């Protein structure tokens, strides 16, 4: 059996490979790629492997983007630290959906299911739909209610009520409070999108995630974009692209 691993964390990729070989020494891990772009290029240039082991959250975006760009017919086992993706994952030939860190028992069950799939795919898929939906309904996503920050030598926490917005400057992400004080946090904006309650937080562009209460004004400008002013004032102008305007307006109006 040939397996392609799509994973952007080196140690997670190595663990996945080790567990695969522990399950069956004859498994051939044909390659390990760490981004949407590299995975897409690999699948275009090579014959599809028998199975894909795919981390949902990659360095350059969601692995779902791979399957939007190119057709992938072979089965997929998804892995992630976040459980809200399960139903979307299932729609893309998913055999199973495993939470990190991977353990041998869970991966073994998923691989056993892969082998069963070749004999009775319809019944396996039907069972998966019910199991995954029940899992999501039973284990609802818990969003963060506070963030740990460092102020000098002192550790503090900031609640959501204190937070105005988050922004990225190069590779550093800052939490900004209503009093305009900012703190460096150990999260990427992509991670924050999954950790923040979407009813109250929205990613305006590549640099900024704001809370609804921190929006001062929204103004339509040229090229179909929206100009957003935040409070406290952000250091540069913030635009919502034409492509995201409809989603942003829906979020404002819910």
TrEMBL record:
Protein name according to UniProt: LytTR family DNA-binding domain-containing protein
Record keywords: DNA-binding, Phosphoprotein
Keyword DNA-binding: yes
Keyword DNA-binding belongs to the record: yes
Coiled-coil residue spans: none
InterPro entries, per the entry: CheY-like_superfamily, LytR-like, LytTR_DNA-bd_dom, Sig_transdc_resp-reg_receiver
UniProt xrefs under Pfam families: LytTR, Response_reg
Organism: Flectobacillus longus
Molecular function terms from GO: DNA binding
Residues with the 4-aspartylphosphate modification: 55
Domain Response regulatory residues, every copy: 2-115
């Amino acid at each position: 059996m040939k397996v392609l691993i799509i994973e952007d964390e080196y140690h997670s990729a190595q663990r996945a490979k080790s567990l695969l070989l522990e399950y069956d020494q004859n498994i051939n891990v044909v390659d390990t790629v760490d981004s949407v772009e590299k995975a897409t290029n690999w699948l275009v240039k090579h014959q599809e492997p028998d199975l894909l082991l795919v981390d949902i959250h990659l360095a350059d975006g969601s692995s779902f983007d791979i399957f939007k760009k190119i057709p992938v017919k072979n089965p997929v086992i998804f892995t992630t630290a976040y459980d809200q993706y399960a139903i979307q994952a299932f729609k893309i030939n998913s055999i199973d959906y495993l939470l990190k860190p991977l353990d041998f028992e869970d991966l073994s069950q998923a691989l056993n299911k892969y082998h069963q799939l070749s004999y009775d795919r319809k019944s396996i898929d039907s069972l998966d739909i019910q199991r995954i939906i029940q899992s999501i309904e039973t284990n609802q996503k818990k969003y963060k209610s506070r963030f740990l920050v460092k102020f000098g030598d002192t550790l503090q926490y900031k609640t959501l009520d204190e937070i105005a917005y988050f922004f990225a400057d190069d590779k550093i992400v800052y939490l900004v409070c209503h009093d305009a004080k900012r703190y460096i946090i150990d999260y990427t904006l992509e991670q924050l999108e999954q950790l923040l309650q979407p009813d109250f937080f929205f990613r305006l562009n590549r640099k900024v995630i704001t809370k609804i209460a921190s929006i001062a004004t929204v103004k339509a400008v040229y090229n179909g974009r929206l100009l957003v002013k935040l409070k406290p004032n952000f250091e540069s102008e913030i635009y919502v692209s034409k492509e995201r305007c409809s989603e942003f307006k829906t979020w404002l109006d819910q």
